[in-house]
Design goal:
Layout lengths: L5 H16 L5 E8 L5 E8 L8 E3 H11 L2 H14 L7 H4 L2 H7 E7 L4 H5 L4 E3 L4 E11 L2 E6 L5 H4 L3 H12 L5 E5 H11 L19 E6 L12 H11 L3 E7 L2 E6 L4 H17 L12 E4 L4 E4 L3 H10 L10
Helix pairs in contact: 1-3, 5-8
């Protein structure tokens, strides 16, 4: 494929896909889809006559795939054939939104509060981590063997005949199930990712075994998607920490996972971790998957996730906090 920028790619891809689907009276259009953190992404929407299914296709993965394989016509052809083959498929919306499905398949998703103000204004939610993060309900769906999820917004509540608080309670109960999550060492996760990417796993991992290296673990759900929802259930984090037997910081790796790293004991340790989280978010994590630039801790006394602070920062907060009155003032 000749060198082409993202914008040009989207319009060219849509034009070629429309040529393939026009004989079937399908209409292809470009729509702006709001993703996590307020990121606008161009998606391809296909309107199929006689069905309640309108496929929505994310364009960024398509662009990356076409750049890698250097064969846009082949990608267009494969996608068109797939849409044509499945054009008679119907979605039983009543089944997807049935009470049984809501009760069994609604979970929490954790997002950054400041970056998702528009979403939170229209979605049931509760704040965690001193308001830095928010938990929202998402419904897992399986249509034709394909898994996905939709965020349950306020406009859906009358149809579901439930309140926002009821939905959140169901989502939290389902999310808090311990068997939904898994904890692996960072080394195991790194080696698995390398193997899945076809990389040589015989590389030198000696840095993981240096004496006094902090113990580091990854916690996510079994699907490895939206696994940072564990932060909305402090009991899950407490169980993990107690099982590992370490006092640790919690790093928001992304909306998909969090990292537990053993505390080193000094304020410089926390400063280093803050810088690392910020750098990784800017350089390695897709904008729509960033969770936070903060480092967190689990407070055993309050049973809450809190923002990590140095001793000096805690002292400053205590000194600046308003003092309670203990008597009458004349």
């Amino acid at each position: 494929m000749e060198e082409i920028n993202y914008e040009e790619f989207v319009y060219q891809f849509v034009a070629e896909l429309q040529l393939k689907l026009s004989p079937y009276d399908m209409q292809v259009s470009i729509v702006n889809k709001m993703r996590n953190n307020g990121i606008l992404e161009k998606s391809i929407k296909v309107d199929i006559p006689g069905t309640n299914v309108s496929p929505s296709i994310s364009t960024l993965p398509l662009y990356e795939h076409c750049c890698d394989c250097d064969d846009m016509p082949a990608v267009v052809k494969a996608l068109a054939e797939k849409i044509i083959a499945e054009r008679d498929r119907q979605i039983d919306t009543m089944s997807v939104l049935s009470k049984d499905n809501i009760l069994s398949s609604t979970y929490l998703m954790v997002v950054n509060t400041a970056s998702n103000k528009a979403l939170l204004a229209d979605t049931p939610h509760f704040l965690i981590a001193e308001g830095e993060l928010a938990a929202i309900p998402r419904l897992s769906i399986n249509v034709g063997g394909k898994k996905g999820s939709i965020i349950i917004k306020n406009g859906m509540l009358p149809v579901l005949q439930m309140t926002g608080d009821e939905i959140l309670q169901i989502a939290k109960l389902n999310t808090s199930e311990q068997n939904l999550f898994e904890i692996n060492s960072l080394l195991a996760e790194t080696m698995q990712a390398m193997e899945e990417n076809g990389e040589d796993i015989s590389d030198d991992f000696s840095e993981f075994f240096v004496e006094n290296t902090p113990k580091t673990f990854v916690i996510t759900n079994k699907d490895k998607k939206l696994g940072a929802c564990c932060l909305a259930c402090p009991e899950v984090i407490e169980t993990a920490i107690n099982k590992l037997g370490i006092d640790c910081y919690i790093l928001p790796s992304s909306i998909h996972e969090v990292i537990l790293i053993e505390k080193g004991g000094g304020s410089e340790d926390l400063e280093y971790l803050r810088d690392m989280v910020n750098q990784v978010n800017r350089q390695s994590v897709p904008a729509a998957e960033i969770l936070s630039d903060k480092v967190f801790v689990y407070n055993q006394k309050t049973k809450k996730i809190e923002i990590a602070r140095t001793e000096q920062e805690l002292q400053t907060m205590t000194q600046s906090a308003p003092h309670k009155s203990h008597g009458m003032h004349m």
